[in-house]
């Protein structure tokens, strides 16, 4: 397989960074090809703005989707966007590695979606969901949190993980990916804090990395999450009611 890791953490030696390094080592040892898109190290600008487009279709008003469509069709996308799209096109599996910040994804990753998933090129009114551009490719979100797993339940102080990740995962499905159930590493913020001793944290750290490798070892047989498709909606996008 061709594997792409998209890393959204500002510290390369962080646990998120180490999970990417461990995953890369595992896949390469198994004979797969691996690329890493470290968004912070690349200095990726997550802000969609007029300055991203050298030759505007409309100089008087900035309409992001119109400019994306024009830039894609005229072959004038920004180099960093072309680079990200080309890596996605090469990948059979895309692993999004990030911490849960403010009950969501880091801003750099949300902005990555805003800029990289180009309107008129990677999606259109009909090229979405189970007819999406990346149909046949797989994607998984690997996330970390300082809170324990027990907090991520209905009514818990962490919130339900499925709700936290819904927007990101549904966006991936919107683009045609087969979205695999997420992988979560909990309780990883103890290092450098007073929550646990360094020795205890290192032991936990090793266990969490091993859990990640075990997940990757079976990922090719994982069953994607179930989402409704075009045949499940009416012309208004509402669920079709079952016939009596």
TrEMBL record:
Q: Which organism is it from?
A: Maritalea mediterranea
Q: Say which family it is in.
A: Belongs to the NAD(P)H dehydrogenase (quinone) family.
Q: Which residues form the Flavodoxin-like fold domain?
A: 1-192
- The protein here is known as NAD(P)H-dependent oxidoreductase
The answer to whether UniProt assigns keyword Oxidoreductase to this entry is yes
User: What Pfam families does the record tag this protein with?
Assistant: Flavodoxin_2
The entry's keywords: Oxidoreductase
Q: Which InterPro entries match?
A: Flavodoxin_fold, Flavoprotein-like_sf, NAD(P)H_dehydrogenase_qn
């Amino acid at each position: 397989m061709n594997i792409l890791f998209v890393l959204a953490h500002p510290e390369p030696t962080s646990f998120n960074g180490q999970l990417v390094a461990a995953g890369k080592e595992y896949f390469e040892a198994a004979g797969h090809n691996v690329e890493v898109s470290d968004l912070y190290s690349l200095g990726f600008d997550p802000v969609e703005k007029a300055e991203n487009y050298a030759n505007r279709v409309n100089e008087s008003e900035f309409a992001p989707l119109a400019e994306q469509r024009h830039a894609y069709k005229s072959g004038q996308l920004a180099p960093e966007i072309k680079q990200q799209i080309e890596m996605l096109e090469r990948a059979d599996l895309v692993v999004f590695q990030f911490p849960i910040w403010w009950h969501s994804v880091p801003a750099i990753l949300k902005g990555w979606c805003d800029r990289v998933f180009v309107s008129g090129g990677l999606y259109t009114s009909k090229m979405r969901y189970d007819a999406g551009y990346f149909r046949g490719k797989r994607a998984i979100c690997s996330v970390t949190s300082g809170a324990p797993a027990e907090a991520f339940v209905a009514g818990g102080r962490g919130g339900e993980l499925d709700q936290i990740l819904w927007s990101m995962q549904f966006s991936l499905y919107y683009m045609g990916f087969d979205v695999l159930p997420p992988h979560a590493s909990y309780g990883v913020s103890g290092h450098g804090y007073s929550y646990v001793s360094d020795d205890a944290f290192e032991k936990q750290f090793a266990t969490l990395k091993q859990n990640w490798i075990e997940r990757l070892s079976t990922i090719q047989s994982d069953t994607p999450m179930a989402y409704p498709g075009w045949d499940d909606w009416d012309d208004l996008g509402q669920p079709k009611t079952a016939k009596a």
